[in-house]
Amino acid sequence: MGQASGAGSLLTPDPTHHHEPGTAARLAAVPPPARNDLAELLAQVAEGDQESFADLYDAIAPRVHGLARRVVRDPAMAEEVTQEVFLQVWREARRFDPSRGSALSWLLTLTHRRAVDRVRAEQAQSDRLHRYESRSSTTPYDTTAEQATQRLEAGRVRRALDGVGEPHRSALELAYLEGLTHQEVAERTGVPLGTAKTRIRDGLGKLRHAMTGGER
Amino acid sequence: MNDRRTHEPGEDLHDLAAPYALDALDDVERERFEEHLSACAACRAEVAELHEAAVALSEGIEVAPPADLRRRVLEQVATEAGGTGARVGDDSVDAPVEDAEPSTTSGPARLRRHPRRTWWLAAAATVVVGAGAWGAVELLGPQDPATQIVQAQDAREYDATTPDGNLTVVASAAEDAAVLRLPAELDAPPGGQAYQAWYVGSDGSARSAGVLGPDDLEDGETVLEGALTGAVAVAVTVEPEGGSQQPTSEPFVVVPLG
């Protein structure tokens, strides 16, 4: 996006501006929305309530957009995915069935599917695999996984994923956040497909256990 | 369990539930598994549970979309609803009409003061929805400053590339503040030195936006100190430990705000 380095000329020191160097600023943790209220909003959206739709957008857009951004990487493309997701939510809210799962899970499932499909379409179209290939050729998978891990900023996520442990954690991150297929996860991590599959399955199982096992 | 191995004998389709739940099947496998799903209640239940578990994988990676996107989405929905929705969000949106995309030109500062009514509506919406599973803490407590900025209606995101990865500034004129997000792989500064952030004025002046401590580096995100007003860019330099009054080195990254 923006022009990066090389703009140093902007920084001509100006002695008229004296500010004390500060101490380290505060950290961030974005609170995720709660599932019950999202479900209520979705129910109202299903009735065609645009105010509720706006509320739903405000509540969940950062999460949706963050996931889209993480998977597709490209900011403009991520915006399109986010926009498409919300239009789909508007059109299909009535398909959400609270007896079958949480609203948050429904929304994120839509988002992730769309983001992954978008990435793969792009790859097929213009062989954008280089984005992954070049990275995989220069960085071993665990570095990539670390990188993915570091992006997960909320402490609670770290705890949930820490509980998962390696090698399952890398497998989950590569599959979900990098948008790789299990075949690609296997190639990237240098293990047979069956092993990659097992890691994904066991990793999700552990994550599920961690989530239902007392954190909430 | 309804064990239908209709396609490839020897391969248990049930095993595909987990990669399916993470969208990690290729197109052919996905189609095959979805066909199986339509006939296998056990797998449907399994996938639903795995989708719940996968929610944890996207926690903490929130990124506020550009304010302009909200306007576009609501307009589109209003149009689909029959054009009666022009007033939707009127009470809470005053998104800037400028492009949502951060511009790469170094034109005049496009930061504007917005009435303060914007942020608390966004905060209020978050708080209301945040109550529930996340408890009364979010409801009663003051909102985290970074969250408040990132979720401000007019929050806009500006990127710059560094050799270590993307550095992002999320700025809200209404909040008159900004959040700095560091590249995931930013190396620690050399011994005895520290990273320091600066607000850069249109005249090229710099005022400190804070020294980045170890915690900031660890967490990858920090609220910049001081007011956003007047800044046309955010820069980061390497300074002696404890920071400097004015930059003593060339910035290794400059993020234009507009």
Describe what this molecule looks like in 3D.
Chain A: Residues 1-22, 127-147 are annotated as: Disordered. The complex is a heterodimer of chains A (216) and B (258). Chain A has helices spanning 35-46, 50-72, 75-92, 103-126, 130-138, 141-151, 155-164, 168-176, 182-189, 193-215. Chain A has 216 residues and is an all-alpha fold. Chain A folds into two domains: 32-127, RNA polymerase sigma factor, region 2, helix turn helix motif (Rna Polymerase Sigma Factor, Chain: A), CATH 1.10.1740.10; 129-216, Orthogonal Bundle (Arc Repressor Mutant, subunit A). Mean pLDDT of chain B is 74; it is low at 1-10 and 84-141. The interface between A and B is large, with 113 and 122 residues.
* Biggest interface between chains: A-B, 113 and 122 residues
| Tally of structural domains of chain B | 2
- Radius of gyration of CA atoms of chain B, rounded to a whole number: 24 Å
Q: Return the average pLDDT of chain B rounded to an integer.
A: 74
User: What is the CATH architecture assignment of the largest domain in chain A?
Assistant: Orthogonal Bundle
Mean pLDDT score of chain A: 74
**Apparent shape of chain B:** elongated
Say which CATH homologous superfamily of the largest domain in chain A is assigned. Answer: RNA polymerase sigma factor, region 2, helix turn helix motif
What's the shape of chain A?
A: globular
Secondary structure: number of strands of chain A: 0
Range of helix content of chain A: 55-70%
Distance between the termini of chain B: 57 Å
How would you spell out the order of helices and strands of chain B? HHHHHHHEEEEEHEEE
β-strand amount of chain B: 15-25%
Q: Give a count of the beta strands of chain B, DSSP E runs of length 2 or more.
A: 8
Percent of residues in helices of chain B comes to 25-40%
Largest sheet of chain A: none
Strand percentage of chain A, roughly? under 5%
- Protein structure class of chain A: mainly alpha
